[in-house]
Amino acid sequence: MATKTKKEREQQREHARLLYMQGEPQKSIAEKVGVSAQTVTKWVAEGGWEQARAAANITRQELVNKIFNSINVLLEDLANDPSPEKTAASADKLVKFAATVERLDKKTSVVDIIEVFMAFSKWLQYRMSFDPNVTPELLKTINHYHDLFISEKLKESF
Q1: Domain Terminase ATPase subunit N-terminal, which positions (predicted)?
Q2: CA–CA distance, 8 with 1 (Å, rounded to integer)
Q3: Which of 78, 86, 112, 151 has its CA 20 to 30 A from that of 52?
């Protein structure tokens, strides 16, 4: 078997990463991509794919629910041992949990959306200086749809 070029190896790795992110088992990925299972395991570890897949697949609501479950366990534990030391430690944890839930449960505001769109527009304008696919017509079309999206979000807010 001929030795793979660096480009071919990177293509295999990227194909494997995409399959992994879609939930494909590592053994199956190895077979589909044409590498050993050990290679896939190495790529997963080196690339932080497991954390990336977890981050991509868990929703805010799931995180909030997990925190609520942790709060419930903490409260049950406190009910079984209401000592001052336990109460103080639990209170600190509850405050941290509450702050985390508040940050996670916060909905994206129209202002947040506008800021993202503005940053994206600036990036596209910069990109237009060297990318022939980014044309003034494209920018105009994107801005038109940005405006429509923001208008709809504003109507939903009221």
Answers
A1: 13-54
A2: 14
A3: 112
